[in-house]
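Bumping with the actual sequence this time:
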Amino acid sequence: MRVIKLNKHEHTIPETVLERTNLCDTQCANASPVFFSFKGGEEIQKHIVDIIQAEPYGKCTTKDGVIHTLWRCSEEESDLMVKFFEDIDCTYIADGHHRSAAAYNVGLRRRQRVIDQGIEVTGEEDFNFFLTVIFPASHCMILDYNRLLKSLNDMNEDEFLEKLSNNFTIEEIKDDNHKPKSKGHICLYIKEKWYDIQIKPELLTSDEKAKNLDYQILTDHWFKDIIGIENIKKDKRVEFVGGGRGVEYLVKRCHDDCKVAFVMYPVSMEELFAVADAGEIMPPKSTWFEPKLGSGMVVNVFEDGLGLKN
């Protein structure tokens, strides 16, 4: 069996990995697939088109209105798919780094239990595999992952904007388009006004691909330098909002309990791949995929044929 290289772009949190490991091991199953993607694969995409001409194996519509459709492959179709994937150098974790790490840990745990009972490990046991869904990059789109800021650190709005002008060009938005027009632009909502914030070129000097992404520049030159936030994932002054909620939700929150909203320009799949290929890590909370495959629609159950306790 050929092993395909797997590239990641995100750090995992040990506590979260342990929690998911315990859950997966106790359930004796993967109930939520890890989302992978890959470059190219035109033959794979054509093969998929052929397969979905048949009647679906199952279909359901979830509460969010998303239709999930499943097709069952024949053994011949599966073998052909495996053959096509031999030309794919690597796959990328798009969403599910913690689930991947947990599945790996469960495999280690169960492998050790087998060894402790004096049973030979072949590598074909069910616990050596986990549930995934793999989409071609051309079928994927990353949505914006926006930010809300709850405090200006005793600055008023004018002082805040003045500090921003050191590294960003600021222009008030007069029309109703409150989405960034391109990479290097961030839309800002503050004090019931919208601004287009453009990153000055002198900030784009790093040799690291991740450092030049809008999300990292926002983290380094706004949250850290101006607000003093060292860890945006843990600081309660920052809240992250997936792009699926829309700009209207951000405005409402600024009227309710927040000071500033930041609307980001989405990163591309090509940027994500470049960061992963370079062995770097994407900025925190910078990729939002929607819709997501529902947990429990397809479940990978670890068969307990070896008589081992979970």
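The tokens above came from a reply further down the thread. Residues 305-310 have pLDDT under 50 and may be disordered.
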